[in-house]
Structure formats: structure tokens, C-alpha cells
Amino acid sequence: MRIPAHSVCTAIRDDIVSGVLEQGSRLTEEQLARRYGVSRVPVREALRTLESEGFVLTRRHAGAHVAEPTEQEAADLLDMRALLEPLGAARAAQRRTDAHLKVLRGLVRLGQERARRGQGEDLRSLGGWFHETLAQASGSPPLTALLTQLRHKIAWMYAVGQPERPVETWAEHGAIVDAVARGDAERARALTALHVERSTPLHRLKRPERGRVRVSQHVVNTTSARN
């Protein structure tokens, strides 16, 4: 059975973002096929996709490597987030469905409850789901794809600390959802812009840890890889 390239792409991307595959490390089709238990064909397709996304760089006579972004490139990501997330929220206010709204409200309720209890790790996951759902509610596949890729890259380059007052952070989420529910695009945009501005100082640039051995959690296929 042929393993879809997008499954292999997701596995490789996740290992790049988590640091299992370190910045600058060489990527060969044979090595990756063995790592994920797949043939070389989906690996080849996945590497092309990841190169288009900026996670992989192919050098002439040297093959594919994990990209090594500069500090300026990393800073640009936060600037792009500050522009695109408010746009996504404004579009969501105009195009959201009842299903989107139900999920957003449910996430806000859970987030507020976890924030009161001080359950930080749960809040990190819930926050990611909230922003992913808000992007999907924009009704714009290109914008949603850009925001998803942006979140992956920010997670790759930055460690994000917990806010000092998570209850207030989730109150901000709730206010954004209220504006989206009312169809108030400008308020949704403004509230999201303020939310992004307040969260930006929590981002700290990661420093690659050379030589540290990490274990991938991904097995795309349990059968032996085939060339």
C-alpha cells in the first residue's frame, strides 16, 4: 500500500519543528525512508513540499538539508502573524458557520476553566486549537493555509512562555469570539491585533542544541521501507 506523501510530509515537518531533525542537518531519501518506515517515493514528494514551505533547503552538490533561518527571518514571522491573524478574525466575523462558532465557544469555556485551575499544558494545546479554528472560520483556504504554515514556523523558531495572567488571555479569546458571533469584523480585527501584540513578548528565539540526541515519535508505516 502506498503511503500518502502528505502523511510523510507531516511527520518530517513535525520532527523539524520539534528539533528531532536539527537545523542544518542533512536529509537523504534513504535515511528518511528508514526512519518513517516508508518507500523513497513519498519522501521525495514530501521534501519538495517542505522546500516550498521553507523548512528544507536543497543545495547543489550537497542535497537536502534542514533550513537554518536567520534571526531576521524569525522576526519577520511575528510581523506577518500580527498582520494575518487580525485579517483572519475579520474574515471569520463575515464568513463563520454555526459549527465554527460552536467549537470556538466550547474552546473558550474549556480554556477559561483550565486557566482558573492553572492547568498550563492544557492551555497551550487549547490555544493552538482556538487559533486554528478561528483561521478555518475565515472561509479562506489560502489564508488558512498561510496561518497554519506560520504557526508551524513560529513553533519551530520560538519557545513560547505562558502568560502571567492566563485568565485574562482567555477573556480576550472570549471577546474575539463575541465579535465574530455578532459579525463585527472591525472589532474582531482590533481585538485580535491587541491579543497578538500582548502575546509577542512571550516568544523567545530558540537556540539550536547541537549534538543532542532526540527520538522521533513518528512511524508513518510499520512495514519495512522499500526502495
Q: Mind describing the biggest β-sheet?
A: 3 strands, antiparallel
Q: Helix amount, in percent?
A: 55-70%
Along the chain, the helix and strand elements come as HEHHEEHHHHEHHE
What is the end-to-end distance?
Answer: 14 Å
The count of strands amounts to: 5
* Spatial order of strands in the largest sheet: 1-3-2
Q: How many H/I helices?
A: 9
Radius of gyration: 19 Å
Uncertain stretches: 211-216, 222-227
Query: What percentage of the residues does DSSP assign to strands (E)?
Result: 5-15%
| Shape descriptor | elongated
- SS-based structural class? mainly alpha
Mean pLDDT, as a whole number? 89
Instruction: Describe the oligomeric state of these chains in a short phrase.
Output: single chain
What does this structure look like?
The protein is mainly alpha-helical. The protein has helices spanning 5-18, 29-36, 40-53, 71-95, 98-117, 120-136, 141-157, 166-182, 185-199; strands at residues 26-27, 56-59, 63-66, 158-160, 203-205. Strands 1-3-2 form a three-stranded antiparallel β-sheet. The protein has a two-stranded antiparallel ribbon with strand order 4-5. Strand 2 (56-59) and strand 3 (63-66) form a beta hairpin. Helix 4 (71-95) packs across helix 6, helix 4 packs antiparallel against helix 7 (141-157) and helix 8 (166-182) runs antiparallel to helix 9 (185-199).
